[in-house]
Amino acid sequence: MDATHSASAIASAVRRGEVSAVEVTRATLDHIAQYDPRYNSFTTVTAERALQEAAAVDAARARGETLPPLAGVPYAVKNLFDIAGLPTLAGSKINQQQPPASADAHLVRAMHQAGALLLGALNMDEYAYGFTTENHHYGPSRNPHDPTRSAGGSSGGSAAAVAAGLVALSLGSDTNGSVRVPSSMCGLFGLKPTYGALSLQGMFPFVHSFDHAGLFARSAEDLATCFAVLRGEKVAAPYQDMPHYRMARLGGYFEQGDAQAQAAVDAVCQALQVTQVVELPEVARARSAAYLITASEGGNRHLDRLRTQAADFDPLTRPRLAAGTTLPAAWYIQAQRLRTWFYAQAMQLFAHTDVLIAPATPCCAQPLGQTELRIQGSRLPLRPNMGMFTQPISFIGLPVVAVPLHLPGQLPIAVQLIGPPGQETRLLQLAHHLQTLSVCSAPVARN
Q1: Which long-range contacts (C-beta less than 8 Å, at least 24 apart) are formed by 17-23?
Q2: Total number of domains constituting the chain
Q3: Is the pTM of this model over 0.85?
């Protein structure tokens, strides 16, 4: 047994003594060595640490101790999480010169306490500013469903590693869509929780107003278990009965995707018997406001680096951060005002609806190096517009579960299940229900 199995299956097998955690780790390391040169998902492999953690799990079992819920499960983290003894790269060249982290990030410690085994740090867009993980310093992460295509971003390495079965779980971050876009590109279940639901301690920041920690898995059950662990909560039993929820499809702005994106939403709505269509007002303005806040806060955060080390930035990142330093404060303030108004509009919808359904991306994974999208007859810049459906949702901090669909003859694509703040359990229940209906799935891909 190795990381191609689900996290729950691995933990159960380790708990029963069918396989040791050390055996799982060695098999996982072999798979990383064999397959990751094709996908470039890892920037660092922490083999020695993983084997030490695995040996501790096996020793605890030998002593007759009750093992924690993720005992023996391999995982890895986006390289903006602090890992004790390693510099926290955040996808950059500049951070290579920083002292190694003195301690693990809060969520890495939570995974360790749950018995999970850290296999390493994962590739990303520099400073989390991108949707394709085409990193100038460390190379692009490649999509396990088609290595000529993007794994999405900015948590592209996190998604690719899980999609290829190199680890069972991974942690990423989502500011404007950086978990949901890679989930869609790589065909995974992904969770962007409510803003503030997971600690950001020990994570290299991008935009304080929107930064979220998030996670990837190949099943809704694994996503739910991992989220409970990260929250420090008791892991619930697998979902049984499906409660009745009031659900609606987001129309208007969210109908701009290509035929595959709309077909994916159609399939989810049909399975859930959703017929109602509702609209959020002024979504395009909300997205523009999110861009202003992102650029302003991101540019301000990196202002000193831009002044002293501009040549060391990724050329795809530097001009956007530099532009952000020039934005007037009045624009930023007005964007934050619109954010408050837009949140109130969403809450009015949730007064009558429990779950909103929308595409995660306007299309499936596109070829690496491509710069434009063709959507419904329009030509759009690719890098920003892969997040056209995710950015307005993280703008107001709503929880989202991305559910992957594998439509016949096509690359995977995901749909967003969106809820009011604090309702992650509701969304995870729906994701699990869609999985039991065989509407959504996340098989291991190695091409």
Answers
A1: 17/61, 19/72, 20/54, 20/58, 20/72, 21/53, 21/54, 21/55, 21/57, 21/58, 21/71, 21/72, 21/117, 22/51, 22/54, 22/55, 22/58
A2: 1
A3: yes
